[in-house]
What does this fold into?
Amino acid sequence: MNADKIPDIIIGRLPIYLRALQRLADQGIHNTSSQELGEMIGISAAQIRKDISQFGEFGKQGTGYSIPFLIERLQGILKVNRVWDVIVVGAGDIGHALARYNGFVNRGFQVAMVFDSDPNKVGQKVNDLEILGMDTMVEKVKQNKIKIAMLTVPASAAQTVAEQLVKAGVKAILNYAPIHLNVPKDVKVQHIDPATHLQRMTYYL
Amino acid sequence: MNADKIPDIIIGRLPIYLRALQRLADQGIHNTSSQELGEMIGISAAQIRKDISQFGEFGKQGTGYSIPFLIERLQGILKVNRVWDVIVVGAGDIGHALARYNGFVNRGFQVAMVFDSDPNKVGQKVNDLEILGMDTMVEKVKQNKIKIAMLTVPASAAQTVAEQLVKAGVKAILNYAPIHLNVPKDVKVQHIDPATHLQRMTYYL
It folds into this structure.
């Protein structure tokens, strides 16, 4: 296994496999096959076998995959066999939704802090978290060695805030602002923009 | 131009180009180049030129692209030179955030209806929209010829609701439930799942 050489497109499918396997495990199922998994997620069995085999031998011909074992290995590969502290920057509607979302913790994440620049929001609570002033963000991120941020500020502020996050040591940004972020190569960005996703589908209507 | 033959990966980049061009237009800029656009969005100038040339001749060697013209053409290609009615199914935190989001209308979409199955939510308002009962969804979607839905119900309900949407004539689903949807091939699905996006980045940490 040479992790550096695994194409990003394969890495992108692993969380999908993991999610489906966790769903099966929640139903009390212990074994699955690439066929069954493929039908669940709309990816061919051959593709799944090929992707997973990049990381070693996981299944046996004929008996399929042990779900607990494959979950453990995928969690290890994706480094979510631990819980990462994540910050939410921007306490608007989406920021609140993310801070209150209960689907993170069993997938390796917890919202540790929420920041906003609006003095009227600072000090208010989202769940058990007090909204913190943006002026304290760099210091708090550094202190707590936070590596992951979800960015839900307006597009006009996003690039500036992203640069502050990078300066503070953040290496992964989930960007909800409808703008591309320019960050150094060692910082990963994933974009969530519903209008972009919708436009990708209207082409086919 | 043979639209049916354009690879989906190219279609996926067009909304990114359109978003960047609209941003330049908002700043009062009338012309751009593939170099400038590429720097804005982190895609090579050559890739942008190649993608755009799939749809005809848009720019002139040396003078670049006319922004209003390219916006108009991309909006036409993506069929967002109109405003599509979209429904939100599930009036939780994310459903509320989507219904209240003001970034849709200048990108071709407006939230026309919001549905929920909870009798305590039905009749309440999100912005100017009254939350409607899920039992009226199929009928209302058919009546209003809605083609696009944003699905924010729990994972356990998502497949059933998706099947109702398909039955009602929906052809594009933006799925916020953390589960793969099985739908007919002529129905497009895009997935937004923050934990999946985060896991794709932790691999590199």
User: Anything to note?
Assistant: Chain B touches chain A through 59 residues (CB under 8 Å).
